[in-house]
Amino acid sequence: MAPSHDAPVIYPGSFDPMTNGHLDVARRAARTFPHVVVAVVANPNKRPMFSAHARVAMLRDACSGLSNVEVASFDGLLVDFVRQQGARLIVKGLRIVADFEGEFTMALINRKLAGNVDTMFLPASVEYAYVSSSSVREIFALGGDVSDFVPPSVLRAMADLRRDVG
Ligand code: PNS
């Protein structure tokens, strides 16, 4: 069965927090596909720095200029969410060679779980190829400046967190 023209593509992730690299991938996916759903995993393996609600809010703010991008959260298997959305395609960013093994494995597992769901990789833009959520979290935890790495909505949320934690 051919995919429906209004079927979205799904751009999933933990986005804890989202980075300028994530925003770049969302922007480029939105230039290529008519409808992109950024899918925030509600309960990632590790305890997240930000709640699913907060991660969705930051993404919505950062993607507000992209009219064909929506942001949702999901629980459970990604392929189940993909099917619920009537989608067939997962889009993921690929930064450095070290990403490849995990991403390739996930793509194969997802295709095994749902034979009609495929994955496409967008190579990170070179200026973001070294930026990761985990390095942003570490720089922030150690009191460093992350303003070059994350959109303003994330910077504000991080400043609030710092204020709340004291
Ligand atoms: O940004 P991340 O942390 O690389 O995203 C990982 C994500 C959310 C895509 C992955 O953890 C995921 O798909 N989680 C949902 C659970 C699932 O479907 N697992 C089976 C595939 S390995």
Tell me about this structure.
Helix 2 (52-62) runs antiparallel to helix 6. A 5-stranded parallel sheet has the order 3-2-1-4-5, with helices on both faces. The radius of gyration is 16 Å and the shape is globular. 43% of the residues lie in helices and 17% in strands. The chain has one domain: HUPs (Rossmann fold). The protein has helices spanning 20-32, 52-62, 78-84, 97-113, 133-141, 152-165, and strands at residues 9-13, 36-41, 69-74, 89-94, 118-123. Helix 2 links the parallel strand 2 (36-41) and strand 3. The mean pLDDT is 94. The longest helix is centred in the middle third of the chain and has 17 residues, at 97-113. 33% of the residues are buried. It contains 6 helices and 5 strands, in the order E-H-E-H-E-H-E-H-E-H-H. The chain is an alpha/beta fold. The termini are far apart. 4'-phosphopantetheine (PNS) is lined by residues 12-14, 41, 77-78, 106, 109-110.
Strand order in the sheet with the most strands: 3-2-1-4-5
What small molecules does the structure contain? 4'-phosphopantetheine
Number of helices: 6
Total DSSP E strands: 5
The biggest beta sheet reads: 5 strands, parallel
Using the CA coordinates, give the radius of gyration: 16 Å
Mean pLDDT: 94
**Helix amount, in percent?**
40-55%
Order of helices and strands: EHEHEHEHEHH
Q: What is the class in the CATH system?
A: Alpha Beta
Secondary-structure content class? alpha/beta
Low-confidence stretches: none
